[in-house]
Amino acid sequence: MTHARAERAALSDLFLQVGPDAPTLCEGWTAFDLAAHLVLRERRLDAAGGIAIRRLAGRTAAVQESLKARHGYAGLVELVRSGPAGLYGLVPGLDRAVNTVELFVHHEDVRRAQPGWEPRELSPGFEELLWSRLRGLGRLLLRRSPVGVVLRRTGGPAGGGSRDVLLGGPRGGARVEVSGRPGELVMFCFGRQPYARVEPAGSPEAVARLRDASLGL
């Protein structure tokens, strides 16, 4: 089973466990809203433009609400569990390439919105994959950072050296070093700074500015 499929199954189980009205880390969204977002993203590409383009957000929101009305919570969860359709089914490996990080982040969006959460112990292979994806996305995710950022992976292979460091944000001025396991750094860079178990190092002002910044896609 791929990591994408494992995250999909675990998230679907969690959706059913917490129920449709459970909060998530996605501001203003319940678990019901998040399930509809995932189905829209994977099955209604014609309406997904508003996820990234503000002027299209109205149509995306309307379609998301229509999915909730049509399928109900349990139906949406089953669609999430069964996986994407259309193009994803035609291109081998596309689900793994496109959705692994998305599913991990949204799985944690539900987990970390519940009381008493703790970080999961991820397998070394999954951590390596998340770090690899972060190395590809890091500069994009940190493009709105007001300070320079050094991401330092902890718990990596011995002797990782430069492989365990990633730079982002402005090149000049104040800089903050953020250390943590790959999954925590992913959550941090996707704009979930208050819910990421990381260790920032830098001036108090620079650290505060980074923690309040709008990071992510």
What does this protein look like?
By secondary structure, the chain is α+β, with helices and mostly antiparallel strands. It has two domains: 109 residues, no CATH class; 87 residues, Nonspecific Lipid-transfer Protein, Chain A, CATH 3.30.1050. It has a four-stranded mixed beta sheet.
Evaluate the radius of gyration.
18 Å
Distance between the termini: 27 Å
- The domain tally reads 2
Could you say which structural class the secondary elements and strand pairing correspond to? alpha+beta
User: Low-confidence runs (pLDDT<50, min 5 residues)?
Assistant: none
The number of helical elements comes to 8
Number of strands: 4
What percent of the residues sit in helical stretches (DSSP H or I)?
Answer: 40-55%
Major sheet attributes:
4 strands, mixed
Strand content: 5-15%
User: Please, what is the average pLDDT?
Assistant: 90
Question: Could you give the order of the helices and strands?
Answer: HHHHHHEEEHEH
Q: Within the largest sheet, what's the order of strands?
A: 2-1-3-4
Shape: globular
